[in-house]
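Table S2 (text version). Query chain:
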Amino acid sequence: MIHLAILRNELSDEHELWVQACKAHHKELEFDVINLTKNNWLEQILAKEYDFYLCKPPGINSLYKQLYDERVMILSMELALPIYPTLTEILIYENKRFLSYWLAVNRLPHPKTWVFYDKKEALATLRNYALPLVAKVNIGASGSGVTICRSWKQVEDYIEDVFSVKGASQRWGPNLTKGKLLQRGIHYIFKPADIGRKLERYKRKRNERQTGFVLFQEFVEHEYEWRVVAIGDSYFAHKKLKIGDKASGSTLKKYDNPPLKLLDFARSIMERFGFYSQAIDLF
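Corresponding structure-token output:
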């Protein structure tokens, strides 16, 4: 019998897919759910020996993201416990700041990225680069928290906001650009429990306010993005089409045959760093 620990995050349901997967194989394994955000997390970890620790890192609130990362680092680095995904996969997930450092030190191609903790340094440095510039919040998916600055006034105003109590602007409610509003409304009529889960996420997003540092990237002109998904030895890819200036969060897809070199590049990353699963966006 295999003994597993599911390490849940602050959201009440994000670990449920792990639970369902484990229940589907109940004859071969047993599992416990440990809330990694609780004060007694370490006592629970040490109270029982598990064969593997299944993680679900959070991706909404930076406070809980930092909490989860720190505690998983203790499990992996200090206790040498087997976790899934790998520690690096967890650290680069929903942390654009850390990801930019990791990409740079490993010489992987990516848009030029600046992270500033000083307002004067940010203004002086960015003046040397051409517009537009892309400002991003550190944590946020589906295009949330992405601002394309096409004038120096926009750059200056954005930096001023982030280095004040106002913070960076970020969508915390429903993504209306996805469309299908009627279908989404009908879904919640027939599955009202999903409304509660959505509201829980919106509340946590609303409380997220990035201040004290800014993250800017160069603007790379592109017609679409390739989203490559790697799971074990399987690789899939589709085009993410743009609505306006952004492909992220648009949900518009096109299923052309991806170039083999695209999949080979993704495989080279997976094999080089020993990753289990990744979603990689490429221009």
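Notes on Table S2: The mean pLDDT is 89. The chain has ten helices and twelve strands.
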